[in-house]
Amino acid sequence: MKKKALAKRVKSRSTTGQAEGPYRSVDHFDSLVTKDFPGKDTLDKLFDYAVERFGKADCLGTREVLSEENETQPNGKVFKKLILGNYKWVSYEEMDIQVSQFGSGLSALGQQPKNTIAIFCETRAEWMITAQTCFRRNFPLVTFYATLGEEAVAFGLNECGVTHLVTSVELLETKLKGVLPQIPNLRHIIYVDRKSISSAGYPQGIQIHSMHSVQELGAKPENCKKGRPIVKPISSDLAVIMYTSGSTGRPKGVMIIHSNLIGGMAGQCERIPGLGSKDTYIAYLPLAHVLEMTAEISCVTYGCRIGYSSPQTLSDQSTKIKRGSKGDCTMLKPSLMAAVPEIMDRINKNVMSKVQEMNCVQRTLFKLAYDYKLKQIKKGYDAPLCNILFKKVRALLGGNVRMMLSGGAPLSPATQRSMNICFLLLHLLLSSMEEKVSAYRFETTCRDSPNTSGGYKKHDKPHPRGEILIGGPNVTMGYYRSEGCINEDFFVDENGQQWFCTGDIGEMHPDGCLQIVDRKKDLVKLQAGEYVSLGKVESALKNCSLIDNICAYANSDQNYVISFIVPNQKKLTALASQKGIEGTWEEICNQPIMEREVLREIKEVATSIKLQRFEIPVMIHLSPEPWTPETGLVTDAFKLKRKELKNHYLNDIERMYGHK
Fold first, then answer.
1. Which of 136, 209, 342, 597 could potentially form a cystine with 638 if both were Cys, beta carbons 3.0 to 4.6 Å apart?
2. Which of 1.10.10.10, 2.20.25.110, 2.30.29.30, 2.30.38.10 is the CATH number of 1-31+442-523?
3. Where in the numbering of this chain does the AMP-dependent synthetase/ligase domain appear (predicted)?
């Protein structure tokens, strides 16, 4: 009954009494939360406080690679397969020593306080050690996604005038080496791997160091912190310049000060019940994304241990895990994890695929338990006996996950409901654009969106609607050296409050819940005047069992929607076999009959969820290649890059719009 009362209570109220807001949480109506602990107003203070409290406890864990081997697939492609050992842990005290030594070593190499230093690296323990080093020494950290193109990285390094760069051997040799002559200010490259590389082929003005050697340099008496005083940051100092992967144009560097991150994490941590040293967090999302970075810093702050992983080693079925060996979730058994909706959709589809493989009795029992628990949840109750049937499903993520942080894009209600039921999860849905640090505690208001975005109005009845604006201590300072973008996306009101214009369309409900109903750039006006929300169509049609990913497309001079689709290989191949179609995966995707079969299922799903006739795709193209950040067709958070997708499928667009 307490849960039901909490669910039904008013969550936020307007601070002005006006329908359009601004709205603020009733839990912090008089003032927004700005920090977790009194006096801890910078990131280095949070880390020092954590070391003081949790000194000998495990902090960062990495699995040892026992062996590697190449496996050739039937289509001729070669995949690297790994056999991994147990997690090896670094304690808080050991991490503190590494941070101190690395900071002293960087100072000995000429890195100065308030001068930027960059990291271009995969998610791993060394990334977090580098970040804590920079926070302690007041080195503003410039971050880049590991999948960002070399030209984009070179642009960001030059824009920030970076002289020191932390990276990995793989990224150094495959992406950076060719563009180093284009980065004249760069003097030192530090690679995080425990190996030696030759400096041959690199520009003469650049010195190459291992992270271990820089730490050894910092451990020397003449370079330790007693000999080199540390310049501590203040809350208004720049902590991070986070380059977004972006859906169009050059990447933009978002300027984030210490108080932005402290305020954002305070709101985030307040919404996680019982967060503490009994928790284990599995880290695999890009640390150059604000959702992952703040999640990990929060875990360190509260004494949670962090085990590092990757999307390719997450589960027993992951692409880099050798058949028969254990994935990272199985070994780590995390209690907390973060995920973007694309990954949660994949997990959910894997679950439902497993259900379809059950025998008739098991499948019937699963469905009965699922439906019964759904009814109980709607009434505000649980169904503990039913949870026994979901034990094997929960084992996919290690069996102990109690909360999942989701951000980066809207999560479909169907996926959230399924994950809640099968994994017994509590979801924390986070606002997680780099421009506004992940948080729950902030002010929000709506402004009228232009007619080109569907004509949503803040005085709409029965609920006000419009573009969502975010205000609060987590709103960042704008884009680095991009005054035009600052004026367009950020503004300061008459009270000195910084606001960010999200581009999301929201609807405010009477109980103070804000629902994101659309995205400005996703709205297209068809020839007959109807507005189509491409994001709404995509979210709805991801429920199709034959679809792994989808991009809806529409032209204003046409009167129907088309789509590009990455089909589910297992499901479509099985369907092709039923239809007597054989061949390679590419040949199956190019069969017109398979397009018709996918279209048939699309229409069935669209009708069942009551999409409007003009919203249902009329023609589709099946893509045999998945969309990954490496292909450049989605961001690192797996958001669609519509411009790149349009250019990639231009011939198919012309074909589909050339004849209906």
1. 342
2. 2.30.38.10
3. 72-423
